[in-house]
Amino acid sequence: MIYSMTGYAVQMRDLGRGILHIELRSVNSRYLDINFRVAEELRVLEPLMREALAARLNRGKIDCRLNLLPTSAAPRETSLNHALLVQLSTLQDAVLAEIPDASPLAVAEVLRWPGMMGDEQLSPDTLQKECAILASSAIDELLATRQREGEKLAATITERVERMRVLVADAAPRLPRALADYQERLAARLREVLAAHDEDRIRQEIGLFAAKIDVAEELSRLITHLDEVARVVAKGGAAGKRLDFLMQELNREANTLASKSVSSEITAIAVELKLLIEQMREQVQNIE
Q1: Does 185 map to a domain?
Q2: How far is Cα 99 from Cα 130, in angstroms, rounded to an integer?
């Protein structure tokens, strides 16, 4: 299966005291590049997320957002941290014993004391466990979107490959006639230029030049490369780099075909081949 590097996934999980929210966005990149936007209280979960993503993705720029959202806008029932309250009371008694004129703590000051409202935080172990479950679901969804996009890319590339096969097959039988016509035109011009009508020398020069402009080898290599593209697409997996290399090889052969062409028909075929290769190359840039 061919996978695109473009994908999106979002997953949420209600933890009672908050909603854990994971959002993944993926675009093409030469390597695996993972970037995080994580709420400060969830920074401890970043290594877990990075490991989970690296284990299942090969390439792509991945943006990961991780947040803990409130369950609702309504105020929640809270409770006091009794252990901290007892500790503050003991400390206050000790201070007043040493400094009798000191002012005692006000109720508002006690309520604002860090950690006094006792049920605000989830335990790190709970967060780790829940994040691992949610991350797995988010990555499943991301891979599913990348797979669907990959199927479309594979279909597009396969369609272009088949069109190129038709063009190469159309070019092959035109070559002998194109070469014969060109040789005749060249011979006529040479006869006009050469004062000595040395037919053997003329035929020799024409034969050498015809060998240089013969594109049968280029057409053969085009077919070989197209066969390899079809094989790689059918095999699936991490095929992007291999396909990118094959696009370069196809483009090289198409350029040579165009430069050696001796007829407008072959030139037109070469131009269309280059257009199809460029279209495939654009698609290949998104393949994992």
Answers
A1: yes
A2: 49
Copy the structure tokens of residue 48: 């877990």
Q: At residue 155, what are phi and psi to the nearest 5 degrees?
A: -65, -40
Backbone φ and ψ for 52, nearest 5 degrees, come out as: -65, -40
d(CA 3, CA 57): 10
**Predicted model pTM:** 0.69
CA 140 – CA 57 distance, rounded (Å): 11
68: left (phi over 0), alpha (psi -120 to 50) or beta: beta
CATH of the domain at 56: 3.30.230
User: Of 281, 284, 226, whose CA–CA distance to 59 is shortest?
Assistant: 284
Give the whole-angstrom CA distance, residue 131 versus residue 128: 5
What is the total residue count of the chain? Answer: 288
How many angstroms separate the CA atoms of 81 and 88, rounded? 11
Return d(Cα 178, Cα 183) in angstroms, integer: 9
In a domain? residue 272? yes
Dist. CA 42–CA 58, nearest whole Å: 25
Q: Which domain, by its residues, includes 91?
A: 82-111
Nearest by Cα to 3 from 210, 264, 233, 218: 233
Mean local confidence (pLDDT), 149-164: 94
Query: Residue 116 falls within a domain, yes or no?
Result: no
Which pair of structure tokens corresponds to residue 279? Answer: 């279209």
pLDDT digits (tens, 9 = 90+) for 132-148: 999 999 999 999 999 99
Residue whose structure tokens are 């066969």? 227
Within 8 A by CB and 6+ apart from 127, the residues are 20, 42, 44, 45
Tell whether 278 is covered by a domain. yes
Q: Is residue 36 within 8 Å of residue 54, measured between CB atoms?
A: no
